[in-house]
Amino acid sequence: MPRTRTDPVVEPATERLLLRLPTEADAEDVLVMMRDHETVLWNPAPLVVDPQSAREWCLRGADWSDGTHATWHAADRVTGRFVANCSVFAIDGEQSTAKIGYRVAPWARGRGVASQVVDVVTSWAFAELALARMQIEHAVANVASCKVATAAGFSWEGTMRSASVDGLGERHDDHVHGRLASDPSAQLGR
Fold first, then answer.
1. Are 172 and 139 in contact (CB under 8 A)?
2. Which tens digits make up the pLDDT trace of 90-126?
3. pTM for the complete prediction?
4. Domain segments of the chain: what residues?
5. Which CATH number is associated with domain 17-180?
6. What is the pLDDT of residues 110-120, one digit of tens each?
7. Which segments of 22-142 does DSSP mark as H helices, in order?
């Protein structure tokens, strides 16, 4: 059964990124990311509409006390600027499984940020939450997420028909990718 924590014991990092709890200081960048077309299309947060709601969203992400999620923000190691959000959610302690989702700020896309964050957070979840399986689900049309999942060591397992509605109200088939604690970890230069 996964252990739950109210905060991380260790904050993981890569050569380029620091992962940490979300902070109110991220709110301005979070609001820009949440208004970006790609985020609105594939991973909207409709309640984040202004600076106050962005701050509240960050604070909710930093509160892990109910054990239902573990949310991280990634920051550039040099500048300290927010570049991505990643959450382990739908944590099922009985089955030792969870899902993982992420968003990348527009200014950080195309640099391998998402695959690094997903790989590191997945490895952390296996070690710290004692999970056996992590799963990514994304719209088939979201080709970038398919590449991220593969680069982060998740195997494509199938397609769920008409499984989700995007931010514009269109239904999509979703790909399912899974990674097991026993799978070899993707080596992304941590």
1. yes
2. 999 999 999 999 999 999 999 999 999 999 999 999 9
3. 0.89
4. 17-180
5. 3.40.630.30
6. 999 999 999 99
7. 27-35, 37-42, 51-62, 113-128
